[in-house]
Amino acid sequence: MSLRQPLPILALLLLMPLLGGCFAAVVGGAAVAGSAAHDRRDVGTWTSDKRIFLGAYNDLNKDKELALRNDVVITVYDGVMLLAGTVRNEELKQRAQKIVSGFDGTRRIINELQIGTPQGFWSRRRDNTITAHAKTALLDLTSLPGFDPTRVNVTTVNRITYLMGRVSHEEDEAVTSIVREVNGVEKVVKLFEYTD
User: Fold this and answer.
1) Helix (H, G, I), strand (E, B) or coil at 19
2) Side by side, which strands form the sheet with 153-157?
3) What is the pLDDT of residue 30?
4) Alpha-carbon span 196 to 193, nearest angstrom
5) Which residue stretches of the chain are H helix?
6) What one-character DSSP code corresponds to residue 118?
7) Among 80, 40, 48, residue whose Cα is nearest residue 196
8) Per-domain residue ranges for the chain?
9) Residue 155 belongs to what H/E stretch?
10) CATH number, span 43-194
11) What single-letter DSSP state applies at residue 81?
12) Pairing relation of β-strands 80-87 and 114-115?
């Protein structure tokens, strides 16, 4: 009898690798639904933005000069694609935009690429820290009832913080004033779409 009890458990353990894909699909679907639930974009737009983002990075990475010798950051929100970072010359700036153009669902491309020497690892790490601090600071925004800080996309490149999302003018004012005070932010660029 004691020998038979472990058999169902052993069978389950042996089957778990086969069920892993199903589990990942369920968890992945829940993650998409959970992320989209806080967003003002509908699920179709949210999914389209992720598809555009992945496709744009994939195409950009095929150009080895742009991918390896420059610093191009892509952000997509509500069909608006932001190109930020640093490239070595104007031709590369235009080439980057051309490469990521033409994705179905892209409404506009904002090319904020700067010309200069691309930043290194530590500069990118500093920018990531600034972004994290800005997102944390927005959690303290309690003066606006019902405001959800996850609805604001924050991207920092070269100490310039870009804000994207669907917000009201009142939310814009509150968010911008908080982000401007974050240590390390040199400039705030608002790319909001307004709900009012």
Assistant:
1) helix
2) 153-157, 160-167, 187-194
3) 41
4) 9
5) 6-37, 43-62, 64-69, 90-100, 121-138, 169-180
6) P
7) 40
8) 1-37, 43-194
9) strand 153-157
10) 3.30.1340.30
11) E
12) parallel
Our CA angle for 159, 113, 135, nearest 5°, is 35
Q: Are the CB atoms for 40 and 195 separated by under 8 Å?
A: yes
The pTM is what?
Answer: 0.79
165/46 Cα distance (integer angstroms): 12
Rounded-to-integer distance, Cα 90 and Cα 110, Å: 15
Nearest to 175 by CA among 160, 164, 159: 164
DSSP three-state, residue 152: coil
Give the torsion sign (CA, 94, 100, 104, 108): negative
- Torsions phi, psi for 78 (to 5 deg): 55, 40
Token pair of 18, please?
A: 């086969």
93-151 pLDDT per residue, tens = 999 999 999 999 999 999 999 999 998 899 999 999 999 999 999 998 988 888 899 99
Q: Cβ distance 171 to 82 under 8 Å?
A: no
8 Å CB contact between 82 and 74: yes
